[in-house]
């Protein structure tokens, strides 16, 4: 290349550099004069023009690895920083002391209590900032903010409540020791501390999912005019490792789509999960920024503390920023697990100019370079910006140190999460680090520290919470309002027999029940139907036009079925929540409505009807959380049972949801067969949950199989609610008699078997409609326990099922559309001298006609007859040959595959 060409290239490069500087200077001038928003608008227009002109500008959701809010735009911190730091230090100490003291004694069984110190240690500054300046308690003028605390940070929340006088020292001493009734649960549990914790946030991943739908429900209440929620925020503390749970990110698109600017996520990016780094070879903050920004969230990165500001200001060539970008999280973790000399060598040593930049700084100065989540100025700025942002949910990605302040044994070490014990040297180091006034001769005792009530710290702590309306967390146990539900008579059409030739399903019966409720002037507006995209399956599409589908922006299009009576109607104040193909999201909406009495002081009546084929297990963890939160409402399994949904077989088609629901103590479960049973059960449920404000929720299974409805016989109400009642008796004078029990759709097979037993075999029987094997078992267990603890007691209660069957004769045969364990629940309470047979649908689900499925699973009328004859033979009342005759008569194949293994 000639010298002329060299000079020409150099000139071009120089011109381009000058041109670049001119553009950057112009942009800086816009930022200075008109602000960042105007600069952003210009840049977007330039990018749009460049793309339309053919330039390839690949999308990147990431910004530089620095704080989103520059120092010049940070608001002044309004608090007394010195007092806040001291309060924070005392809380850190008490949280640590509580966990370590709980693990010093080895119990007789050798099992320790466990506990976590490191998570709160990394969160203390942010939680303190929220408590002092942002989180409103419920008052007459403010509905209160909701705060989902990171589950493993509970020791710090207890420690603050101790300072506030809301938790006693005796309770701290019983951390994780709850059996005697004076301890504290390991994690947030409203069930165990009903006036304290609002939300359970463990299992991990459930907190962010539930929080999104709580924030959306606040908007829903406001749009429908039920409550003014305009000033309320939902704050959610999450771990960066927790964000790998699918539920954590599963609904962030909904939050952006519905512009939930009342929602603030704070992801505690301490770079560590339980076993090691979250992204040792990458950068979790950058990854999460891309995910959230791509989903439409406002992202605030809080990475570097104020001690970095002078270095970043001097970084004119961008070398420091480049090294920050290139350094991976595994390295960042190591820096805070070592010391300043290590950071000088391994971080600043990556470039000679960086070593020069810090050459006048001591190792202590370098060690003092802090992370954003531990800087109260930076935290306040981020929180302040988040509360003022409109039109989008906000996520704050806050970089912290796992086990901050735990010294050589715990800070940023891989085992930090499980750290629950500290030796005396580590305790001394912790005390000195946070300047706790505990003398050396008391360190071994690990005393809690609480300043005098008249001290500046205590006065400041109480004053800040008084200014924000009161203390948090705090939970309301009852709503102030009183609602009266319709009487059973209001649902009279469901209680009467269907007209000649008329058939309906229990799903249709439920829809009638819901429509009747919606017409009630007092409680109708409080009903919240929630569907996961199956409205037409359940015959509920009429609700689209009747009450409208909630959509914050209304309906911007003309639906294709507008010419039909039941067209798809979205409206800004719609009552129905249509969640799409999303059972977990729909159930989270249900939880928000089901806990509204507590969180919003408004009683709501949610009805979540889902396609039971996909299984209770889809939201099973959330169902437990609902129990923990003392939710109130109805969950309805549509087209339930393993054989009702012919043609739609799934490997786990529902034959087990009642087993799963039975595990949750405050979930009341029913499997009704008839419309009148549905009406009696649900009206009583309304009374318990809405009128009496009892902390239970109902799981009711429904079928889409049409048949004639017999209507309610007066006096059967008690049996329906308690779990069983005699539905029909035949051949009272027969020499042989059996008791036939069934539930749901299979009760009709049991009724048919009753007819066959009389017609073909001359055997009389009683048919029992068992609306709830689960409630019968619970009653039996209560009676059994009473007897166990009162061995010499008289007039002990008798299980309801025992009392009912004791009045009858003959063996007992149960058949249901669920696995055998469902009907087998009552076996311990069957009279001891009676043979007990259970038929059920164990095995993989599959598709076919209903009658074929019931034959396959051996729960149909013929197998009920066969089981009855076999039971009579075992009791010596008929020869075993009678059972063989039945096999031949009904064409049962004795060589057919066992459905359990088929």
From TrEMBL:
Keywords: Oxidoreductase, Pyruvate, Thiamine pyrophosphate
Domain spans labelled Transketolase-like C-terminal: 723-860
Function field: Component of the pyruvate dehydrogenase (PDH) complex, that catalyzes the overall conversion of pyruvate to acetyl-CoA and CO(2).
Oxidoreductase is among the record's keywords: yes
E.C. code: 1.2.4.1
Classification via Pfam families: PDH_E1_M, Transketolase_C_1, Transketolase_N
Name used for this protein in its record: Pyruvate dehydrogenase E1 component
InterPro entries, per database record: PDC_E1_N (IPR035807), PDH/Transketolase (IPR051157), PDH_E1 (IPR004660), PDH_E1_M (IPR041621), THDP-binding (IPR029061), Transketo_C/PFOR_II (IPR009014), Transketolase-like_C_2 (IPR055152), Transketolase_N (IPR005474)
GO terms, molecular function: pyruvate dehydrogenase (acetyl-transferring) activity
Segments forming domain Transketolase N-terminal: 146-301
Lineage, top ranks: Bacteria, Pseudomonadati, Pseudomonadota, Betaproteobacteria, Burkholderiales
Cofactor: thiamine diphosphate
Catalytic activity: N(6)-[(R)-lipoyl]-L-lysyl-[protein] + pyruvate + H(+) = N(6)-[(R)-S(8)-acetyldihydrolipoyl]-L-lysyl-[protein] + CO2
The Pyruvate dehydrogenase E1 component middle domain, residue ranges: 499-710
Entries under NCBIfam families matching the protein: aceE
Source organism: Alcaligenes ammonioxydans
């Amino acid at each position: 290349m000639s010298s002329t060409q060299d000079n020409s290239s150099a000139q071009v490069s120089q011109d381009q550099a000058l041109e670049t500087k001119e553009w950057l200077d112009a942009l800086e001038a816009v930022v200075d004069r008109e602000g960042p928003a105007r600069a952003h608008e210009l840049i977007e227009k330039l990018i749009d023009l460049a793309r339309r002109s053919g330039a390839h500008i690949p999308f990147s959701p990431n910004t530089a690895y620095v704080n989103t809010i520059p120092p010049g735009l940070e608001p002044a911190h309004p608090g007394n920083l010195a007092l806040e730091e001291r309060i924070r230090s005392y809380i850190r100490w008490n949280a640590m002391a509580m966990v370590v003291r709980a693990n010093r004694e080895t119990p007789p069984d050798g099992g320790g209590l466990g506990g976590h110190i490191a998570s709160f240690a990394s969160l203390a500054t942010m939680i303190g900032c929220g408590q002092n300046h942002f989180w409103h308690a419920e008052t007459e003028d403010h509905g209160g903010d909701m705060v989902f605390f990171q589950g493993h940070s509970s020791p710090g929340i207890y420690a603050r409540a101790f300072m506030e006088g809301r938790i006693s020292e005796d309770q701290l001493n019983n951390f994780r020791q709850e059996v005697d009734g004076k301890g504290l649960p390991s994690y947030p549990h409203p069930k165990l501390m009903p006036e304290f914790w609002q939300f359970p946030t463990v299992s991990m991943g459930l907190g962010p999912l539930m929080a999104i739908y709580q924030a959306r429900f606040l908007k829903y209440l406001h749009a429908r005019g039920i409550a003014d929620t305009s000033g309320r925020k939902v704050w959610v503390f999450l771990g960066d490792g927790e964000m790998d749970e699918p539920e954590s990110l599963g609904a962030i698109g909904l939050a952006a789509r519905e512009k939930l600017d009342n929602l603030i996520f704070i992801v505690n990016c301490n770079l560590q999960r339980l076993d090691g780094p979250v992204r040792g070879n990458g950068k979790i903050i950058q990854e999460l920024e891309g995910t959230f920004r791509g989903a439409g969230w406002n992202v605030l990165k809080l990475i570097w503390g104020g001690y970095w500001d002078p270095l970043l200001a001097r970084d004119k060539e961008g070398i420091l920023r480049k090294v920050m970008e290139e350094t991976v999280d595994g390295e960042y973790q190591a820096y805070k697990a070592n010391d300043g000399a290590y950071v000088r060598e391994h971080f600043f040593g990556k470039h000679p100019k960086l070593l020069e930049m810090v050459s006048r700084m001591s190792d202590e100065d370098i060690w003092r370079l802090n992370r954003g989540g531990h800087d109260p100025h930076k935290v306040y700025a981020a929180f302040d910006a988040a509360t003022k942002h409109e039109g989008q949910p906000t996520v704050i990605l806050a970089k912290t140190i796992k086990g901050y302040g735990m010294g050589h044994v715990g800070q940023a070490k891989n085992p930090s999460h499980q750290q629950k014990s500290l030796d005396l040297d580590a305790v001394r180091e912790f005390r000195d680090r946070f300047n706790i006034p505990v003398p050396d001769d008391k360190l071994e005792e690990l005393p809690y520290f609480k300043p005098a009530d008249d001290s500046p710290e205590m006065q400041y702590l109480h004053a800040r919470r008084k200014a924000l309306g009161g203390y948090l967390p705090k939970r309301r146990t009852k709503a102030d309002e009183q609602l009266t539900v319709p009487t059973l008579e209001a649902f009279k059409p469901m209680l009467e027999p269907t007209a000649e030739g008329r058939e309906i399903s229990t799903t249709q019966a439920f829809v009638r029940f819901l429509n009747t409720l919606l017409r009630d002037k007092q409680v109708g507006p409080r009903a919240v139907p929630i569907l996961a995209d199956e409205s037409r399956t359940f015959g509920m599409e009429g609700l689209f036009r009747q009450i409208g589908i909630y959509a914050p922006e209304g309906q911007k299009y003309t639906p294709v079925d507008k010419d039909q009576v039941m067209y798809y109607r979205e409206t800004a104040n719609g009552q129905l929540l249509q969640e799409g193909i999303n059972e977990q999201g729909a159930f989270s909406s249900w939880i928000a409505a089901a806990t509204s009495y507590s969180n919003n002081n408004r009683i709501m009546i949610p009805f979540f009807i889902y396609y039971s084929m996909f299984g209770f297990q889809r939201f099973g963890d959330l169902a437990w959380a609902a129990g923990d939160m003392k939710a109130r409402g109805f969950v309805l399994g549509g087209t339930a049972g393993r054989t009702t949904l012919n043609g739609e077989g799934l490997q786990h088609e529902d034959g087990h949801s009642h087993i799963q629901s039975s595990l949750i103590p405050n979930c009341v479960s029913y499997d009704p067969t008839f419309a009148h049973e549905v009406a009696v059960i649900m009206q009583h449920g309304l009374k318990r949950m809405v009128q009496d404000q009892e902390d239970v929720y109902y799981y009711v299974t429904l079928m889409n199989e049409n048949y004639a409805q017999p209507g309610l016989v007066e006096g059967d109400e008690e049996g329906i609610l308690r779990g069983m009642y005699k539905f029909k008796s035949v051949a009272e004078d027969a020499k042989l008699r059996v008791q036939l029990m069934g539930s749901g759709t299979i009760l009709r097979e049991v009724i048919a078997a009753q007819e066959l037993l009389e017609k073909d075999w001359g055997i009389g029987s009683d048919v029992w409609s068992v609306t709830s094997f689960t409630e019968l078992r619970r009653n039996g267990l209560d009676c059994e326990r009473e007897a166990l603890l009162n061995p010499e007691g008289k007039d002990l209660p008798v299980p309801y099922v025992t009392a009912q069957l004791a009045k009858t004769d003959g063996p007992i045969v149960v058949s249901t559309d669920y696995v055998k364990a469902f009907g087998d629940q009552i076996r311990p309470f069957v009279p001891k001298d009676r043979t007990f047979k259970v038929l059920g649908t164990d095995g993989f689900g599959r598709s076919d006609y209903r009658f074929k499925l019931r034959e396959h699973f051996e729960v149909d009328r013929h197998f009920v007859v066969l089981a009855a004859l076999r039971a009579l033979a075992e009791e010596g009342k008929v020869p075993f040959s009678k059972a063989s005759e039945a096999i031949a008569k009904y064409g049962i194949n004795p060589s057919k595959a066992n459905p359990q293994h088929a």
